[in-house]
Amino acid sequence: MDALEKRVQVFVRVKPTADFAQDMIKFGPDNKSIGIYTKKDAKKGVVNNRQTDWSFRLDGVLHNTSQDVAYETVAAKLVAEALIGYNGTIMCYGQTGAGKTYTMTGATAEYKHRGIIPRAIQQVFKAATCSVDSFLTVRISYLQIYNETLFDLLPTVTSSGSSDMQLAVVDCPQGVYVKGLSIHSVSHEEDALNLLFEARKPKAVAEHTLNKNSSRSHCIFTIYIESRFRAFCNVKCIHSKINLIDLAGSERLSKTGSQGQVLKEAMYINKSLSFLEQIIVALADPKRDHIPFRQSKLTHLLKDCLGGSCNTVLVANICGEAVHVEETLSSLHFATRMKWITTEPVLNETYDQEGTVKALEREIILLKQELAMRDNLVNRSVVTYEPLTDTQVAHIRSQVQKYLRGAIHEIDIVNIRQIQEVFKQFKVILSQQEQEVEARLRSKYILIDKSDSAAVAAVAVVGGDGRAAREEDGQALGAGTPPSASRSDSYCEEIPECSSFPPVRKEGIGSCLSEADLDVFSSSKSQVIISTKDLNVKEGARNQDPANSDAELPQASPVEDSQQPSSPPPKSVAFEHFKEEGGSEINQIYKENKSILLARKKRSSAVAQRINFIKQEMEGIKKALEAQKHGRWQEGEYVDEKGRIIIDEKEFLLIMKLKDLKEEYRSGYAELQDLKAEIQYCKELVDQCRNKLISEFEIWYSESFLIPRDVQEALRPGGSIRPGMIPINRVLCLEEDEQDRYERMQEMALPAGPASASFYKAKMKTDQKHVCTRTVASLRQMRKKPGLITAAGKNKPLS
Ligand code: ADP
Ligand code: MG
Hints:
The chain has 799 residues and is an alpha+beta fold. Helix content is 49%, strand content 15%.
């Protein structure tokens, strides 16, 4: 809602007269002010303080103005704003005969003398015909307030043919309105004018000294406008009304000379106008919080126009003759007071929900037609855009399932609804799978919270007695991925006693491993006790019938099972076997290096011990020498002819001994340093050998027991794949070897010619590339064998 504070607009219209009081009434050059100059009242004697000169500032003075200009100045803008949703009120105030009716209704005889009402009707209907995007409805009502009674000036037709319904001014949240007043829909300007002219027949006119046709009633003509706009699919409604009020004469009673009924009428009129005046004074005073609008019917009815939310214009009609100067003054006072009233016009705009829904429905129909036309143009078979039926949803579900199984490779895109449904089905399947996986894990593992140290400790204890084990960090010895690597929970499993699987110790080693193996394996960072792969193997072993374990299992239904070797041996046993066969050479080197290391360590500790002993001996001799020296000083020293101190034989021997020990110490220390370097070097060698032994074993174990039979065939000498080429870590090993070779080459060649570096680098790169190409080619060849990769992929990172 737009709210903009405005003031009541006030204009003065002077009725043309041949007897214009030029000395008394003067207009400002800008036509916005008027000055009244009166002579001192002679009756009130010499002492007379009454003000005689007045100046009034207004929004405009209409003097010798045509009806046309008067309308443009006073009403055109207000009516235009009513057409966009602002209520408006124009009222004419002034003494009887000053031209109120002429201004408001005009002379009905001649078109050019028509007043504000017919011109406003015309403007509204003109807007209705010009507007393309809105639909305008116009209705009118005409009310008369006479002696505080409300009359409907328009003919009302009731079932009884009478129009005697009691009218009343009623307040409601939307504003003030007259209950029972007839409101007439008019579709043409002419209809509205007919009603106006019909109503103009005076209802209560008394003979009067001022003007025979003077009306002592207030007449309110209202135009109700309702327009509906369509802004996209919203149906916007604008409601507004224009009140056009011809007030009763404001002349003072004394001047009318009325008596009896006429006097009573005049009193009523004056009363309601004086209430209007009071309200205007109250409204202009910002400190007043209560405005007594309900004091009279007129003020009650004008509550919205004066105190609130509409554009309000006042026309003060005055007579230009000297004889009416006091009434003129009174009217101008009233007008200036009115000028200080502020209003806040409010836009009466609503959105018709029902209309909006209907508009949206129409829009949907239109868009569907558009789609159908486009489908036709591109020769698309008939596609429906209706919501999907249960059968269609079921079909989409089955398509998604087929797609996930790999039975189909594409899902045809039909329309947006179908795409949305496909995604929905993916979501459904995903959440089902999540639940299934979780349920499976829960049935197999105990879920513990890693942050719960007590629970973790408890599990560790259980793991320690060989019943259960815990996986940490996913660093499984068998390089498997833990089932919940990305989760903060751990799964623990009860280990059943199984002959093919060794009991597990907390240190992470199978019990049947030797001390040497312990050494080998304990240097691995892994704290994992059971690898996932081991678990898989064990599962496989448990599930298979021992009788069929050596068979080819052609009848087994799942592809992966048919490719699994039957119960691979435990790693500890296999490791022993490996060390005697394929890994014997590296194992031998490893053992030799280890024994060298051990020997060096022993020698090193012996040398260290010896050095310590020498050091102690040296300390003792140093102390003895100190004592000798001290004794010499006390007894007095002997000096030879050259001034050299003479020492006894004991001291001499001690010195000689110390010298020898120092020599021995030095050589021992040097030996120890050499040994330390040697030990460090040996340690590295042993580490390298150990790692090599483990990785060779892992490859050998995988190739021997975990790779499907068909692949094993291919791996045999003469097969399509050279052993050791499959696992990616093996390929990396080859790269390391190349690197080693390059380094060796560098050592040999570079000292002779440093310029050869680029050449060797290039050569090494080409060699590496060649190895890589060969590897990829071998892998491709293997892939060509149907079913191999799928099966192997379950256990190894082949694909
Ligand atoms: P009121 O309604 O204030 O009592 P009227 O509008 O009936 O006064 O005017 C009295 C007479 O003066 C009417 O005959 C009217 O035609 C005439 N009259 C009033 N104002 C004008 C005007 N501006 N120009 C021409 N005639 C006017
Ligand atoms: Mg009149």
